[in-house]
Amino acid sequence: MELKEIYQKDLSIGAGLSYPRISFEVFPPKDGNSSKLFEELRVLKKYNPALVSLTYGANGGNRQFSYELLQMILDLELNVMPHFTCVGATKEIIELYIMQIENLGIENILALRGDLSDDISINDFKYASDLVDFIHQKSTLAIGIAGYPECHIECDNLNKDIENLKRKVDMGASAIFTQLFFDNDKFYSYCEKVRKAGIELPIIPGIMPIRSLKQIEKMISMTHVEIPKTLRERLEKYPNEVKKVGVDFAIDQCQQLIDTEVCGLHFFTLNHSDQVSEILDGLNIR
Length: 286
Hints:
Blueprint: H1 3-6, H2 12-15, E1 21-26, H3 35-44, E2 51-54, H4 63-75, E3 80-85, H5 91-103, E4 108-112, H6 128-138, E5 142-147, H7 158-170, E6 175-180, H8 184-196, E7 203-207, H9 213-222, H10 229-237, H11 242-259, E8 264-268, H12 274-282
Parallel strand pairs: 1-2, 1-8, 2-3, 3-4, 4-5, 5-6, 6-7, 7-8
C-alpha cells in the first residue's frame, strides 16, 4: 500500500490498520547479525504497523546488507520502506537500487540527504530534493521525505527550512516524516507553518523513546532538538530509571498527539521493541 493510501483515515477499517497509523524505523545491525533484529520485529508485528522503515546504515553504507534485510522483512509480511540517501550515491547506484526494490514489490521509499562526514562525500545528488526528483522521474515509487520541527541543524531559519521542504514536495514527495522532538508545541507550530506554505501532505511525527542519558547528549549534539525543562528534571531526579521516565513521557506525548488527530506515529526504535511495546500498550494501540 502506498503512502497516500496508508494515511487516508477512511481506509483504516478496510485495510485492517489502526488510526493513527503506527510505523517503526530500524537499521542494519552493526555486527551483521540480523537474528536479534528479527526477534524485535516479531514482537512489534503484533501492533500491525503500516510501515517498517529500514535505513542504509551509517554514512550510506551497507546497501547490499540492507537489501538482504529488506527481503527478510518482507518475509515477515511487513510493509517495508527503505531509505535512499544522497551520501555516497551516484545516479547509477540509485537507479540500480530502484530496480532491485521494485522487483521485490516495494512501493514506498524515504529519500534523505544523509549525514555527512569527513570521509564521505556527496556525488550526483547535492540535496534531498535532487534525489526526490530523480526517483520520481525514474520510478513509480511513493516518496517519503524528512521534516524538521525545530529546523535542520545546518539551516539557520525555520522558514527557510520549510522552503527547502516545499522544494522536495514539488519534486514529487508523498508524505513527511519528522525528526524526533519532545515538545509537542513545536510540532504544532511547525505543522501550521507547513500548511501556510501550501503543503498538504500527511505529516507524521517522529517519536524516540529515551533509553539513556548518553543518548540524549548525542541527540543534542547532532540536532536542534530541545529537551523540555520538566523532562530534564525528571531524568535528573531518577537517573537509575531513565528508560521508565522515557516511556512515561512518550506515552503522554503520544496521547496528546493522538488527541489532536495526527495521522500517524513513527517510532525510532533503535532496534529495541521493549520501550515501544510499553508505549503502545499504554496507549491501548494493538
